[in-house]
Amino acid sequence: MSCAGGELLVADNPPIENGYQGPLPTFRSVISIPPVVNRLVLFSPCILHRINQFEGERYSVAVNIWEQAPLTTTAAEPPA
Prior knowledge:
Layout: E1 3-5, E2 8-11, E3 30-33, E4 49-51, E5 54-56
Antiparallel strand pairs: 1-5, 2-3, 2-4
């Protein structure tokens, strides 16, 4: 697998509060993390981030890990 570009840019801004409705803050400064085969990067979804444009193959996985499911979750109950 190869990739040209595609750096993960993580902002140093304070995390965005859950439910925030205002405009997104601009990036003040950024940590740039280049894509590397088999690299796993974990961070809070409240942290501003983006991916630079790229050519090639790249896979991303988003996982929500909750201590308690949000009230808006409509997950189906397992069959009885």
